[in-house]
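Q: My labmate handed me this sequence with no annotations at all. I'd like to see what the chain might look like in three dimensions before we decide whether it's worth expressing. Could you predict it?
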Amino acid sequence: MNDPPEYLSPAWFAAADRLLRGDAGLRDRSRGVRLVLQQTVTDGDGSTTWHVVFADGEVSMHAGPAERAEVAFTCDRATAEAVRNGDEDAATAFLSGRLRMEGTVTALLEHASLFSELDDVLAPLR
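A: Here is what I predict for the chain of 126 residues:
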């Protein structure tokens, strides 16, 4: 993908969903996993929310909030872009208070490798 769509645009969500659904390795490694991860990025007075669903080998991304998410992250746009671009890791943003987490810490720890793999699969959108 030479020219990725604008971050958090409808085209970006569509491209991200295609990448997640199409990655055989991610599908294989997520078999048996049922998990919803949500992220909200604040930007001035507004915010953008999306969620990733792991459903026993099927992985998808959806714009908007999840009905129920095991783990939910919130941060401002500058933090989200720094983490997405690899300029900062999520752990550093979390420890500094710029990335907030709600939900089940155990789910986050149990599936940390899947979260890392999400980043790899979505790399073409950077």
